[in-house]
Design goal:
The protein is 37% helix and 26% strand. It contains nine helices and 14 strands. The strands form three sheets. Strands 1, 2, 3, 4, 5, 6, 7, 10, 11 and 12 form a ten-stranded mixed sheet that branches. The chain has a two-stranded antiparallel ribbon with strand order 8-9. Helix 7 runs antiparallel to helix 8, helix 7 packs parallel to helix 9 and helix 8 runs antiparallel to helix 9.
Length: 303
Amino acid sequence: MSDRTAAIIVTYDPEREVLLRLIEMLSTQVRMLFIVDNASSNFDQWQHALPAAQCHLIRLSSNLGIAAALNHGLARAEREGDLQFCAIFDQDSAPSANMIDQLETYHDRLSSRGPVAQVGPYFFEHNRGIFLPFIEFKLGFPRRKRDPGNGTWTTADYLISSGALISIAALNVVGNMDEALFIDYVDIEWGLRAQAAGFQSYGAFDVRMEHRIGESALEVAGIRLAVHKPLRRYYYYRNAILLCRRHYISLAWKISEITRLGIKFFVFSALSKRRAADFTMMSRGIWDGLRGKTGKFEQANRS
């Protein structure tokens, strides 16, 4: 068990057994667990099952979004004073048995190369049945880095947040998660901001974690795309445009992301089972991004 790391799990209407399995897996790996609940409607179904010894429950009065929830957990962990890392998790992630120790070892080793922002595992995404590559831009183009088969590490511009071991020293310089984004692109924005501040993110191919992204997958020309609820499409498009307005985000990333989302706009508008709702929410996200709207999508916005 690590004395240097706290785990932060953000919950919102979690499946009780899935959440408890995650807590059981992490309880032998970290010094303490912070469960930050975004006002779950099923809170009473699982709160009493949490192990009292290590779990510290932070219940928010309303759904403040993933970034705000993480910041509550990060602030609580930093108040401990002697922790070096926070490992952050979605409620339905499945880390490997010795993941925290492995990531800490990588951090210690890689620190000799310069300031480390975070180290993350190689993700197996169940809905699409693939390992998700680490992304790094070189010469203006995104490189999708997959396991070369020798169990090594690689540099990355950002990481998927769930499973990432974040340095508290880096947080103190880079700052916390951007609550204006509410959900989606929170991890990308922090990674790119850390990179601009001189901190490097790393991916470890021999550290594995399983996860699900979206509800299912849509196959188009042999490519499996994650399917999300229309509301999530709003946040994707709005937040991508918000990031394109920021000076520390590279032009290469902006061009690549707008191109990728432009293609997906036409794919989901034409082929999604909820094509009308997807089109409406993607369009609204684009409009709100262009006018600089941030935070939670409120009911009034749907008129």
